[in-house]
Amino acid sequence: MSEPLTTERRTARGHMHAEAFCLMQYACKVCRHFEVIWNSRDGVTPFCTACPSCGQPHLYHVNFMMDRFAPDHKPHRGQRVWTSMTRERAYELARRNISTRRKPGPETDMVIDSVANSYYQDGAGPDIRIEGYAEVV
């Protein structure tokens, strides 16, 4: 069993981010869905994300002091995992999000570039995947 993190231990581990390799609790303020998401990297994670149960963007990171350092965690099938954003995934998401709001054209391409770069963050941006599943586009 992992021990709760303290500020001193976080720094002592040598990671750049407090939530590096942690199992973190998320709870939905709308439907009360609860889950544990693993951060598989030394990177920041979003404070909130879309709830898989109700679809609302109200699944919040809760109980910060209960985050558990678990660098060797093996996610179970269906568990969501924070990963690093890839450039390809950032462009895929940007195209999907922008194409529903804008007509194709040079200005749209510039917007897609800008949005993709904001998602990618030079490789530091977070992405989320579901263990054992591949997204079908």
From TrEMBL:
Origin superkingdom: Bacteria
Protein name, as recorded: Uncharacterized protein
